[in-house]
YkgJ family cysteine cluster protein
Amino acid sequence: MSVKPVHRPIARSFKKKWVKEAAAHVRAGGHAFVWETDKRVLFVFQEPAEDNPDDFGAWGIYDMAKWKWNVETRGALKGLAWTLVPRDCLWIAKRRVERDSIHPGPTRKVAFDCTDCAACCRDNEVILQPSDVERFKEGGRPELAKPPYARRDKDGKLVLTLLRNKRCRHLQQDNRCGIYELRPHPCSEFPMGSECCLFAREDVLKLYDGLLPEA
Ligand code: SF4
Ligand code: SF4
């Protein structure tokens, strides 16, 4: 975890008739929600590069429990990625747009101090991959994949355990990761300034990078 400035996309809403403007916003680095009806909404972003695990577009759909996108082949959105926003996530679309309504332009430069935050290390379910278990073994810490450090959830996935106060068991008092060199993939890939990062900061710390939510 470290401080490094990033340019995060600004989320905007567009009616369907303004799809060209939505495409221009995305091509300039932003994220667009295109409202075809009040229930059918496209989330539009630049196609993620396969070799970029930090891609803000891809991370923009993960907190809607989506992992795949389409790439449009025609029309104003040609070449851009999109996915349908699940109906139970429409509030996420509205909240992102509300949050960003005070920011001008298609992107915004942010630099958070992760050691002053650690929101993503609290009340977060970190799922361990086989490669994480292997790395723990190679690093001389095979116990990290077993209780009390890890447990099986109801779906059989191996997850890191939390302390009673919801902090990750490995989060030290200075907010640094106690197993930083061996930390699981989901931790090392969590990009600062991504929608998942912004959501964690709002949810856990009530820190808002933009307009506060309406009461
Ligand atoms: S929530 Fe974001 S800023 Fe906070 S520690 Fe995680 S990546 Fe860093
Ligand atoms: S393992 Fe480290 S980086 Fe991952 S959640 Fe725990 S404290 Fe944070």
Strands lie at 6-9, 11-15, 31-35, 41-46, 70-71, 80-84, 107-110, 150-152, 158-160. The chain has two domains: 6-112, 115-188. The chain has six helices and nine strands.
